[in-house]
Amino acid sequence: MTASAQGIPVPNPWLVAVTVALTTFMEVLDISIANVSLRHIAGDMAAGQEESTWVLTSYLVSNAIVLPMSGWLSTLMGRRRFYMLCVALFTASSLLCGLAPNLTMLILFRSLQGFGGGGLQPCSQAILADTFPPAKRGMAFAVYGITTVMAPAIGPTIGGWITDTFTWRWIFLINVPVGILSLYLTSRLVFDPPHFATQRRDLLSHGFKIDYIGFALLSLGFGCLQIVLDKGQQEDWFDSRFIVTMTVVSLGALLLLPFWEWRQRNPMMDVRLLLQRNFLISNVLIFMLGFVLFGSTVLLPLFVQTLLGYSATDAGMVLSPGGLTVLFFMPLIGFLVSRMDVRHMITFGILCNALALYLMAHLDLQADYWSIALLRVLQGIGLGFLFIPINTAAFAEMPMVKSSNASALINLFRNLGGSFGISLVQTWLTQGTQRHQVDLVAHVSDFSPITQETWLALTQAIARQGGAVGDAAVKAQATLYAFVQQQAGLLAFLDNFRELALLFVAFIPLVYLLKRSPTPH
Asked: Whole-prediction pTM value?
């Protein structure tokens, strides 16, 4: 380890990258790893399935509150100190989650875990942006991209395996040794750059004031929004007074937020950064990436589980090849991003994803494992060509003193995209299944010769297995209805894949509003 002219240690940047990626991977993994364990948590703690979903919601709400203000907190406390505080809080609360005696305490500890995790992603990205020179940021974002793109893909697989092999408590307890290791490495390898320390001293010397109103608007706006997105489908959306109330509070706070923050000398969320064209467009694109990535990550396991009969572990294995593809392609893309026009790379990534989703829209009930997994591999290639170039374009003209605030915003938009994607595809799936079922039932009538032939064949087949003819007729009718439900579900899934593909393609014109050469050559 060498030292700079200012006497600040200068460690190997790749060691710093591995250190911050380790904790980020742990935090992003924790967003999805608990999903497959809810049934076990509910059973172990004698709680209903609906109550257990607050284990997920509490984490996402607290995470959404801290994330947009993480840049402000980094400046106030010092980025290294704030990052280590987040790691310590995340690690300690993970231990408490693993030891929680009841559901109420688990939800409380998950909220604390979300507060700690909310600062990890933006801090990690800002540290990488400052550690690597602009010409090598592509490789730095490749390391970051591996954690944030691969973790959601393999989270359900790991969570299912841990829960089935050990107990659900270990999905939280495994964070403890990783967090301790990360704290040690961070204390040895991560330091605030000189410009950041100077900015903090100047800020504190001018009579720093806490923006309490900005804090309240952020907390209400993003906290209530996350509740709406996470609970909307479960509560039947706007037929629920609770969802309507949360929506009104969220909209009111988020509409006031930019006007209030614009007037503040030290805003909690620096909305002025969105005046930069590249940064604004990059945030829209990263929102779209989060929407489609998380939306398709929810759809594909549901498709193979509900229609093809896969177990939770096997469903996770469908996603794993795509995650491994990201692992292999990210370094190559990180190398290319400083040598190619990022706009062309983003367009290629969009087309890869759109093609994969379009082909998914042509799957049927006879699709085998590799037919589906290879489409996820194609999607994984596309994700790599999206994540790194978009982040590189966002930070290309960003002053180093603004890297923490910029990282907070771009991570916020990606997480919001993911939340909207998960929520809306589940709603589309439910409504699409109902719509197709109505259409199909209209064609399955007593006056249809095909219906009569199918019902008669099923009745005879069931009767040959033993039992009265009357019972066989009733069972045949139930089987016929199950066929209708299955086909309605299949059509709804295919509609969703097709809609996500079209959504991706629709964003291509926006890509070419980015400046032509946002990266050094």
From this structure: 0.79
